[in-house]
Amino acid sequence: GAIRVSDFEELLDFGKTFAYQRLPRSNRIAIITLSGGAGVMAADACLESGLVLARLEPHTLARVKEKMPSWASPGNPLDIEPLSEIVTHEGAYRLGLDAVLSDPGVDLALVVMSTLRMARVHADYLLDVAKAHPEKPVAVCIIGEAAIYSQLFQIMEQASIPVFVSVRRAVASLAALYRYRRFLDNLAKRA
User: What is the phi/psi pair of residue 114, to 5°?
Assistant: First the structure.
């Protein structure tokens, strides 16, 4: 089966996502973000693309809530800014991504990162978690300074994690994985 793309940019985006990631079981996505606004934009893009926000299990939410300030309340999208006040930005991304990828109700994940307040440019905290859950596709959108973006892009793409400059492009690529999974499932039913 072929996957239609609307332009050359989408062809490249989808191509790298299919090359780097496995197909998801279904369309339930978790969003991890350091910005509530970016989380809302990502959620809207997911719904427009045929992905649904995963309902996180109570134990997943409790795992994150345990490390958050008392005033914070985790959900999906998972705004990790309050978490970062307690466990640092890197710790918040690591804990947030591991928690959602460990959740049986999550099939794929989008991480929306900011280059602000990075102590050093590396991505070990994301790469380790993604490697521990290879059955669940992960895409990253990085918002911020171009020089840091370029460094993170190289690090993550070398580790087969697709990186995008916009939430919409990242979501469209993850949604393409799901649409292809659905196509293969339908094909298998007919066989």
Answer: -120, 145
